[in-house]
Each structure stands twice: as C-alpha cells, then as structure tokens.
Amino acid sequence: KQEVTQIPAALSVPEGENLVLNCSFTDSAIYNLQWFRQDPGKGLTSLLLIQSSQREQTSGRLNASLDKSSGRSTLYIAASQPGDSATYLCAVGRSNDYKLSFGAGTTVTVRA
Amino acid sequence: NAGVTQTPKFRILKIGQSMTLQCTQDMNHNYMYWYRQDPGMGLKLIYYSVGAGITDKGEVPNGYNVSRSTTEDFPLRLELAAPSQTSVYFCASSYSLVRGDQPQHFGDGTRLSIL
User: Fold this and answer.
1) What residues does A75 pair with on adjacent strands?
2) Which of A35, A59, A111, B10 could bond A47 through an S-S bridge, CB–CB 3.0 to 4.6 Å?
C-alpha cells in the first residue's frame, strides 16, 4: 500500500523567502505525482503534475522535482508572497490503477 | 467556467438520516471520483467511475453508494448517516488517465456534520 508523508505539517516564513515543501512515498512504482493547493474552505487546485518519466516540472515561481528511486518529491516556491499562504498537498498516482494516494499536506503561512 | 460543481456546500444531518451529495462537471471528463477529507488527514477515495454506467469502490466505501447514469453527474448517497461520516466531501473529475498527464479537477466540497 502506498504511504505518502509530508513533513512538516506546518511552516511559517517571512515574505520573500523561498519555500521548500517535501513529499515522500513508499512505493516507487508510481504513474505520476501531483502537487495541489488548498485554500481554507475551498477545493484543491492542481499546481503541477510530474509524470513518472520526468524529473521536474516548472510553472512560474513553482518548481517540482521527482526522484522515484528515493521516493521523494520537492516543491519549491521562489520569493514567497502572503498570497502563497495555503495548504499544499502532494498526491501519488499508482501505476496499476491510476488512483491517487494523498499526503496530509503542509500548511504554509507567509508573513508580510 | 463552472468546472466541477458540488451541492450542497454545508449540511447537518441527524444520525440515521439519508442524503445525496450532488456532483456535476461540464468538462466532458470520463473519470469522476468521490473523496473524503478528515481533519489533519489526506484525502481518501470513497468511490470512482471511469464512465457512465461504471462505478467501483475506493479505499473507504462502507456506508456510501454511487451511481453514474450520465457523463456529467456522479451523486454520492449516504443511506444511514453515522457520526463517523462527519467530514468534508470532495468530488473530482479528469480525462482518461492513460497518458498520465491529466490532472484531477476538484469541486469546492460539501461540509457534512452528523449529530
């Protein structure tokens, strides 16, 4: 069974600092990995999707890397802003049935 | 663009009552999903559907039922509400996952309390 862990559970940084969010998973036979953003009282918004054959994906200030052999993914957010405050979840797509296994998320607060 | 729409947004039920959570999507997605999110936990898959008329169980299906009569709609039914079903429920949809590059799109959720 795939276990997905996100540490730390919460993070507070001053505005302008770079954010590094970690995601680890136990089964390296993945199909893809997605990073989502969740604002309070809202649903999940897909930020980046990395296919199993890829090493990283970039979108604006966001960069996500994937290392299947070590079971890790990292989401980097450059030059953080108060608007980046949210919960970030990673989800791993399984190779046999494409279902997603979610981590519990990291709640980020960017202080102005 | 509507995307994935869930109704209601909030609901309080008494133990033993029944209700249906509605979900509709306008993106012509084949795949649809129901998740629940408990405080401090990741989302857990309840049921999913790969197309009209086809549904299957996820990780935590007990106490729930689904149907998929059209591509657009995927309602979730709670037959005998129990306090353990207090949670936030999310519906999601995606294109076929064969290519591995299709993200799931989520609704805003239904916050359900069973008292």
Assistant:
1) A21, A64
2) A35
Q: Which residue has the tokens 């897909």?
A: A46
CB contact under 8 A, B43 and A41: no
Output the tens digit of pLDDT for each of chain B's 115 residues: 679 999 999 999 999 999 999 999 999 999 999 999 998 888 999 999 999 999 999 999 999 999 999 999 999 999 899 999 999 999 999 987 665 677 889 999 999 999 9
C-alpha distances (whole Å) from B46 to each of B2, B42, B78, B110 are 23, 13, 12, 14
Torsion of CA B38, B39, B40, B41, to 10 degrees: 0
